[in-house]
Amino acid sequence: MNMPKIIIPLLLTAILAIPVAGYAFTVSYSADPIDAVVVDAKTKQPIENVIVVAHWVLEGGLHVDRVGELKILETTTNKAGRFHFNGWGPIRHWGNSRLTYMDPELILFKSGYRYLRLTNRATPEAIGGKATPLRRSDWNGKTIALERFEGRLEEYAKHLSFINTSLDFIDENCNWKKVPRIMLALQIQNDVFWRSGITRTPYSLSYLTDTKECGSVKEYFEKFDQ
Known about the structure:
Blueprint: H1 7-23, E1 25-31, E2 34-40, E3 51-60, E4 65-76, E5 82-85, E6 88-95, E7 97-99, E8 105-109, E9 116-118, H2 124-127, E10 134-135, E11 143-146, H3 153-161, H4 180-195, H5 217-221
Parallel strand pairs: 1-10, 2-11
Antiparallel strand pairs: 1-6, 2-5, 3-4, 3-7, 3-8, 8-9
């Protein structure tokens, strides 16, 4: 018996929809506070005014790619090299994405030093989204060493350009407003590069554009000391 032609597309649609529907779920995520100390890798002395970004990355899809951000925070180290992020949550999240091992990813930057990105351990449990809804940073309570960059200015610009991979969230949902310190610091660093004729540089204010949703970039950052 031949199946009516109209039934075949409907069956295919239903079959393709099963994995997507089965993958959607609801989780109420929370996070513990994070405290750590940043020191110079050689001198072991604390480093003040290191900018630290913490962002909890949502991942999903067939190949587990980044699809968005659950939470973004920013702070700086004090004279003792210490930084702190308050705990947060619960945040109710529904959809086909989840937190994995970048829960959070930490990005550390200070001019003259190599930037550093840190994540939690990429365990099968974390990658599969089966870790506890209460997230903790592996770097809580740790001492983190930053290395001074030793090389030519062109080499430093090339090194810093790779920070763009970790900052690829800034153009989404006006997220650049949540990380003003690192955007301003990278702009100042880029000014140094440009005066030397170096064009391969990291994200900065000059890469942002005004939009109706986010408003004026210039007016927003005028509120912050450079």
